[in-house]
C-alpha cells in the first residue's frame, strides 16, 4: 500500500516537472526568437517611428547647439524615406544589447551630413565641407551617447536572450522533460496511467501558458511599465514582450486542448477496459455456475473443453 501511494505521489511530481519543462522551453525559445530577431525588431522600430524620430531629433538638436548651429540645422534628417534604413541599423545594433556602438555608423553620418549640407546651402551659412563633416560626426556622437544601449541593462529579457543563459535553460528543461516521461513510463504498468499523468502535465502547462499571459494582457501591465527612457527602445521592447505573450497564449491553448483530448481518449480506453473485464468476469461466473450444476460426466467434459478454450486463448494472445 505504501509503495502504491508513493508511486502515485512520485508521478504527480513528475507531471509537474513535465509541465515546468514545457513552460521553460516555450518561454525561453520565444524570448530568444523575438528579442534576437532583426526582422522583428526592424518592424517594431518602423511601427514606432514617431518615438524614433523624436529621440534622434532631440539628440541632433543638442549637437547643433554645441556646434553653434541653429536647432533646425538637422531637422528633417530623419523622415519617412530613410526611417527604414535607420530601423535596420538600430535592429542590427540592438542585438548587441548595451554594447552597441553607433559612433561608426555610415547610415547616421551620411544622413546628417546630407541634411546639414543642404541646410547650409539653402540658408547661406557659408560652412566648409570640413565643418559640415565635423558637425555631422558630432551629431552621430550624440546619437551614440543617447542610444548606444546603456539604458537596456535593466531589461531582464534582453540580458537573458543575449547570453548563453537561454540555451542552458532550454537544454536543462529538455533533459528534465525526457527524464519525467521515461520515469512515468517505468513507474506505471498500465497504459492508461501513463497517459493520465502525461495529460495532467500537459494541462498544467497549458493553463499556465494560456491564462497567465492573458491576465497580463487584459490588465494592461505592459502599458504601465516603462522599460527604457528612450521611447524608441521602450516601444521595441514592449512589442517584443507583447509578441512573446501572444505566442505563449497560442502554445498554451494547443497544450491545453491536447491534454484534454488525451485525457478524454484515455478515459474512454480505461472505461472500455473495465467493461471488457466486467463482461469477462460475468462470463466466467456463468460458466462456473453451469459447470457446478451439470452432471458429473458432463462436468468432466465441460471442464476439459473449458481448459482447451483457455489454452487456445492464451496461445492466441501470445
Quick one: biggest sheet?
Answer: none
Mean pLDDT across every amino acid position: 79
Give the SSE order as H and E letters. HHHHHHHHHHHH
Ends apart, CA distance between termini: 31 Å
Low-confidence stretches: 298-304, 310-318
Beta-strand percent range: under 5%
The total beta strand count reads 0
The helix tally amounts to 12
Q: Which structural category do the helix and sheet elements fall into?
A: mainly alpha
Estimated helix fraction = over 70%
Quick summary:
With 318 residues, the chain is mainly alpha-helical. The protein has helices at residues 2-35, 38-47, 49-66, 83-94, 106-122, 129-147, 156-162, 165-187, 191-219, 221-224, 231-293, 296-317. The chain is rod-shaped and about 125 Å long.
Task: Walk me through this protein's architecture.
With 318 residues, this protein is mostly helical. The protein is 81% helix and 0% strand. It has helices at residues 2-35, 38-47, 49-66, 83-94, 106-122, 129-147, 156-162, 165-187, 191-219, 221-224, 231-293, 296-317. Helix 3 (49-66) packs antiparallel against helix 11. The protein is rod-shaped, with a radius of gyration of 34 Å. The model is unreliable at 298-304 and 310-318 (pLDDT under 50).
Amino acid at each position: 500500500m505504501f509503495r502504491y501511494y508513493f508511486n502515485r505521489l512520485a508521478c504527480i511530481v513528475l507531471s509537474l516537472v513535465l509541465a515546468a519543462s514545457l513552460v521553460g522551453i516555450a518561454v525561453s525559445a520565444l524570448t530568444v526568437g523575438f528579442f534576437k530577431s532583426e526582422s522583428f525588431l526592424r518592424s517594431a522600430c518602423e511601427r514606432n517611428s514617431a518615438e524614433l524620430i523624436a529621440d534622434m531629433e532631440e539628440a541632433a538638436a543638442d549637437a547643433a547647439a554645441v556646434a553653434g548651429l541653429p536647432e533646425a540645422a538637422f531637422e528633417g534628417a530623419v523622415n519617412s524615406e530613410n526611417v527604414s534604413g535607420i530601423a535596420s541599423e538600430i535592429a542590427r545594433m540592438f542585438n548587441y544589447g548595451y554594447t552597441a556602438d553607433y559612433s561608426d555608423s555610415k547610415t547616421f553620418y551620411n544622413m546628417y551630413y546630407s541634411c546639414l549640407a543642404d541646410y547650409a546651402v539653402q540658408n547661406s551659412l557659408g560652412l566648409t565641407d570640413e565643418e559640415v563633416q565635423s558637425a555631422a560626426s558630432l551629431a552621430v556622437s550624440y546619437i551614440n551617447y543617447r542610444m548606444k544601449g546603456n539604458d537596456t541593462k535593466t531589461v531582464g529579457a534582453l540580458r537573458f536572450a543575449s547570453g548563453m543563459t537561454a540555451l542552458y535553460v532550454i537544454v536543462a528543461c529538455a533533459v528534465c522533460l525526457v527524464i519525467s516521461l521515461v520515469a512515468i513510463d517505468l513507474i506505471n504498468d498500465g497504459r492508461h496511467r501513463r497517459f493520465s499523468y502525461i495529460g495532467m502535465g500537459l494541462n498544467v502547462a497549458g493553463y499556465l501558458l494560456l491564462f497567465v499571459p492573458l491576465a497580463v494582457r487584459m490588465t494592461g501591465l505592459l502599458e504601465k511599465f516603462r522599460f527604457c527612457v528612450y521611447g524608441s527602445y521602450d516601444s521595441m521592447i514592449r512589442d517584443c514582450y507583447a509578441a512573446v505573450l501572444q505566442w505563449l497564449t497560442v502554445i498554451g491553448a494547443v497544450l491545453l486542448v491536447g491534454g484534454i483530448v488525451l485525457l478524454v481518449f484515455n478515459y474512454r480506453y480505461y472505461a472500455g477496459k473495465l467493461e471488457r473485464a466486467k463482461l469477462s468476469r460475468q462470463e466466467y461466473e456463468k460458466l462456473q455456475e453451469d459447470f457446478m450444476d451439470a452432471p458429473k460426466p458432463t462436468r468432466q467434459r465441460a471442464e476439459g473443453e473449458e481448459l482447451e478454450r483457455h489454452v487456445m486463448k492464451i496461445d492466441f494472445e501470445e
